[in-house]
Design goal:
The chain is α+β, with helices and mostly antiparallel strands. It folds into two domains: about 180 residues, Beta-Lactamase; about 210 residues, no CATH class. The chain is built from 15 helices and six strands. The chain has a six-stranded antiparallel sheet with strand order 3-2-1-6-5-4, sandwiched between helices. Helix 8 packs antiparallel against helix 11 and helix 13 crosses helix 14.
Amino acid sequence: MNFIDELLEKACKSMITTILSCMDIAFKGTIYKIGPMPELRAMRITSGVREPGSDEIQWGLPAVSDYNFPGKSWTQYRDQPDHVLEAMGWCVEKQVSWTADNPFEDVRSVRKQLSGEIEDFYHMEPVLVKKTDLYGHCLESLQYPVDWWGRAIWQDSDYVVVAVIKIHFLPYTIRRDDRSTKLIKELSRSLGTELLTLYLRESLYNSQKEFTRQRLQSCEILAHELRNALIKFGFVFSAINAQIAILREEWELQLQMAFPDLKWKADILSRLIDLLDQRIPEIDGRADVLRAVKNLSQEQHELAILPLLPSQAEQWLKNKIRPKWEFLLAASDAWERDYTEIIGLLDDLMPALSLGTDAGLAEGLSHLPVDLREKWMKLAYIHFTPDKTALLSEVLELLDHPMINIAHKEQLRKALRSLKVLADVIPEVEERANRIILSLRYGTMPDDQTTTGDGSLQTCPDLFAREDGRVASFSD
């Protein structure tokens, strides 16, 4: 039960208590909720019975009734041929009361019609609310319930029935249109006002819930789109690292020219490629061996030409090159006589991948100033991520050094300057996007601090939180 249902039950209990307190001859009261149109489902909200000899009221729905949850729809209790006549149908359709001041002659007593038993003396009063109060002045679109013959009811009335009050009396204490029934009619207007207030409150509550749902849905859609758009800016750091790779390649070229007798990556891989290609005719035709040879050849060529970071090249060697060579040496005799040389080359390849970071070799580049050698080696082996954008200024200063002489220097400098502008603006764009998402999600201004009911700070989910739970970054 939500709080609106609780308020409705509380209002109905208050009305029954008022009626039973005002009339000593009344001993039981029940209130039924009617609606919405056109279904007009009638359902008991609560019943109260006064304890004999006291003012205490026992609450609940102990009696079995067709009007207990989920109640009865209009087509089940309206007047129709070959169907029992119900006082509920009369009150709802005609919008007038029904008084059973003589149960022996009550033509709308369901119990009397079905089993011949006599019911209590009772009065049923419909609770009316003006259509315009409920639906405003746009009444043309209302769907009215229809009677058995298909005729719309209430179309010519200014009111709708929102509830029905049923009060049971002591035998022979009421008459049609007497003071008691008139009092119930007057009190029904008060209940109608309360029910209208509850209806408006429930409508506001539901509208707020729907607005919140739509706002959150819009927030999630917008966050998803902004996240995808901003993550695509990750190409900036891929492009920066591609430019730094050129700087790294030029640095290693300087070292190779100064120390041509060292075992460099390209020379070792060239020999491994030759050994691989020379023995292909000797393979016995096994499909798995031929497939490994093809893959290994391609991967060795790529490693030879790509200016990877030492850590990346080492992983390439560990996960791609060496395992395939080990498989070929074990699976085929074609490279048996080259075994020792191949293992030696693979062992030499690991230190060759990091020769560019050897400070001792860098000191041998005497034709370059000390400050240039140190900065060049340091910056050439940085993997740029969003937290390292400040180092781009150092890279640009390096390229401005008059003693650095590399191919396409001017183009490299222009490209890095443009990429630096994008890299610098991305954090600001991300922050502003998150603030907008926060304001949309919680209905606050971007600078507001939104708190939960317990006073703790509510935060908007990180725009860069990925669906798999990891934190997305521009380097992904």
